[in-house]
């Protein structure tokens, strides 16, 4: 058993979180994580409307009696999705926890508090973590430079970011980015976190609703096979390296603007990669942790392996080192 205060506050058996993932965070995966004792998040914006989100939450409830949450990724955009409507759908569905990410969640916190929804806010810097703590969120998930998706612009890896955050955060703290196995969980606990969040590792599981080619590529790829796009636009994203990501990087490095890459980075192309398994169709998200992913287990196997392995690591290897 590995339990921390995170488990008490968020009502789960193990301090292992499956973060929101566009096109991946659907009921099948989230229910599997919940049934295995972790905290999974349905990704709100994967659903085309708030009504579809309500239906997806109901579908997940049909597959598990355990608690699970919803990720609300708030990205500033010219035509933003109806965030407040998604938020209200989350509250009205009686979901006990939300993972906010992408932007300051202040605008949504009073409604979540009134609806009794706990907030785990995910961010990429200590200053944003401190700000969210001041705003009254219930937990912080801090994403290091290794992570899949948006690592921010500070380029601070988890080995420094997590303990730096732990020095300033007194609510449950989840370490995110680069975690995939028992070694990572033990390291996160040692660094001062109360658990781990994983994205990429959960994509390479039996239940993840993505094409097998994607899962197999995560097993084959090394830690060097990701690429940072959008650096010049100050909207950095870590993605799987392929011909499309390389083209995006070179066009922007040559002075191109977003218009020059708009077609390459279209969300519809990235979604297709996950659905049909053609890995060169578009941009798809993956983290450096792929270098230590060597198989495609069920979610239950993965979580059991992490929890059992962490206990063994602490009791055997670490205990032997201080004997
Ligand atoms: C395919 C994929 C899609 C993602 N989409 C989102 C998203 O929509 N919102 C979000 O907050 N994080 C998203 N993430 C980030 C994860 O929730 C998590 O923070 C990150 O994957 C942690 O790093 P790791 O991949 O090294 O475990 C995504 C990650 C992956 C792999």
Automatic annotation (TrEMBL):
Its EC number is 1.13.12.16. This is Nitronate monooxygenase. It comes from Saccharomonospora amisosensis. GO terms for molecular function: nitronate monooxygenase activity. It holds the Pfam family NMO. SUPFAM superfamilies: Inosine monophosphate dehydrogenase (IMPDH). The keyword Oxidoreductase applies. It is an enzyme of class 1 (oxidoreductase). InterPro entries: Aldolase_TIM, NMO. Keywords: Flavoprotein, FMN, Monooxygenase, Oxidoreductase. Gene3D superfamilies: Aldolase class I (3.20.20.70).
């Amino acid at each position: 058993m590995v339990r921390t205060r995170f488990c008490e506050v968020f009502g789960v058996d193990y301090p292992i979180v499956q973060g929101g993932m566009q096109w991946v965070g659907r009921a099948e995966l989230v229910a599997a994580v919940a049934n295995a004792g972790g905290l999974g998040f349905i990704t709100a914006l994967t659903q085309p409307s708030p009504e579809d989100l309500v239906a997806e939450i109901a579908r997940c409830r049909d597959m598990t009696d355990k608690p699970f949450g919803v990720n609300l990724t708030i990205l500033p955009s010219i035509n933003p999705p109806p965030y407040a409507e998604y938020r209200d759908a989350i509250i009205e569905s009686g979901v006990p926890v939300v993972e906010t990410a992408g932007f300051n969640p202040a605008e949504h916190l009073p409604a979540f508090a009134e609806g009794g929804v706990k907030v785990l806010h995910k961010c990429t810097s200590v200053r944003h973590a401190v700000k969210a703590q001041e705003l009254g969120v219930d937990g912080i998930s801090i994403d290091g430079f290794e992570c899949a998706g948006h690592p921010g612009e500070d380029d601070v890896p988890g080995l420094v970011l997590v303990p730096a955050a732990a020095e300033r955060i007194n609510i449950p703290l989840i370490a995110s980015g680069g975690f995939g196995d028992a070694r990572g969980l033990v390291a996160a606990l040692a660094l001062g976190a109360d658990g781990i969040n994983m994205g990429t590792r959960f994509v390479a599981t039996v239940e993840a609703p993505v094409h097998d080619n994607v899962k197999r590529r995560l097993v084959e790829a090394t830690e060097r096979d990701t690429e940072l796009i959008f650096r010049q636009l100050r909207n950095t994203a870590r993605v799987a390296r392929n011909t499309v990501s390389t083209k995006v990087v070179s066009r922007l490095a040559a002075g191109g603007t977003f218009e020059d890459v708009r077609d390459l980075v279209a969300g519809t192309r990235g979604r297709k990669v996950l659905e049909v398994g053609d890995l060169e169709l578009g941009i798809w998200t993956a983290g450096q942790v792929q270098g230590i992913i060597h198989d495609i287990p069920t979610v239950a196997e993965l979580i059991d392996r992490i929890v059992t392995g962490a206990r063994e690591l602490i009791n055997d290897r670490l205990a032997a080192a201080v004997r």
